[in-house]
Design a protein that fits this description.
The protein is an alpha/beta fold and 472 residues long. Among the domains are: 69 residues, no CATH class; 106 residues, no CATH class; 72 residues. The chain is built from four helices and 35 strands. Strand 11 and strand 12 form a beta hairpin. The radius of gyration is 42 Å and the shape is elongated. About 3% of the residues have low confidence.
Amino acid sequence: MIVELSASDDRLKLFARITPQADHHTAREEDLLNEICEVAPKELVDRMVVWDIISELRQGKGCEGRRVAKGTVPVPGKDGKLVWLVRRFSPGKSENADREFVDFFTLGLFENVPKGREIARIYKPGNGTPGMDVFGKAITTKGGRALSPRFDKTIEPRMDDAQEAYTTLVAAVDGYVHDEGGKFGIREVLHVAGNLDYGMGHIDFIGSVRIVGDIQKGFNVKARGAIEVMGSVLGENVLTSESSITVKGFHFGGDGSFVSAKGDYSVDVAEKISTEVGGNIFISREARDCLLCSSSAVIAPRAVIIGGSAWCVKGFEAKVIGNEAGVKTSIEIRNELEVTKEYRKLNDNIRKHEAAAAALELHIGPYLKNRNRVPLLRAQFKEKMASLLDKHDQVQMSLERLRGIERRMREGKPLETEARINVREEIKAGAVFKTGEAVVEFKDPVRGPVCFRPSDDRKEWKNGDYVDFVVE
């Protein structure tokens, strides 16, 4: 046989052209393999092709351009890459976007990231794998490009000696991951540029929240930091903060409205709002039909308080209490235990028992005080009346037990020594001051400035010298 070998332009393939000779039937595989290995390393030769060529050659058949050897293609190194382990803030892109039905109140546009959490990994570029041509010469390759993402000081890169493949990015503060033109950081304040509505949904954030516009009806905000609303809160919303809550405009609520803050609550105008505040409550202009509960004081020196009730520990100050219509407006000085959620539940339970007892008394009528007449009734009426009397006695026993718990809570912690109610201009008819067993109901207006202080035993109110509140 006559053997002619040629390489491809990229030198990765070796082709053989075989011409049979007279004694082709004696051709051996080893002879052809030796010819090929004169130019190509043995490990690159395709033995199956060589065997097939020899089989054809023994039958007097040659070949044109059979590939008998193949080099290895160089593999370039992979580029470095950034892999996120948390969801970044994506305005308008919901985690529920692929679902057929979406809850537009709960969009999940970001993920809370606590300090110290791994948020991403920067994988290092690969070096690549060099190749080899059919002549056994190495073919060099390029390594991957390194990735150098930009991030601020709120993100810390950490190297792990046991892990050489990547660098870990860790959150240095609480917040969410924000991408600002390719530069990443952890934002500690969630900034809502407009209204809180279906574009954002409910907010549950590990840091502080600042809303430039209004909070629309039905949207709730929960934050570990402060909540600041530059506009108004419209409708039945729940605002919860482990710090302070500020509403620069109006706060219109309803039966489902609730404010819970461990710090202060500040508002311009509030209507039908229930609060549970660990700090002070500041009202700029007006509060109407609200339940204001503060473990400190209610400070409203320029505001009018109309309807509802206020429970406070350190005191209360307002410009005017009540209105010309004589709507009932209750101000109560309580100790630290009495402004807790447990006490309010106890107080509500007592009122329900009192209402149940009053309803039973109406049904029982004169038989309540003259039980000896019950046996004289007809059988069916006697049984019904006996059942009503038994139920009344059970309600009264339960009511006395609850009142005993209430008394122990009142006596368990004394009032603040400087606790008082200050009114700068006027107390309208219909206002009610309460503390312990002392209750004052104003039948006629009282001009200010006036100051009322509870006695140490909480059995009476004393009208003393007016002293301005000093807010701590």
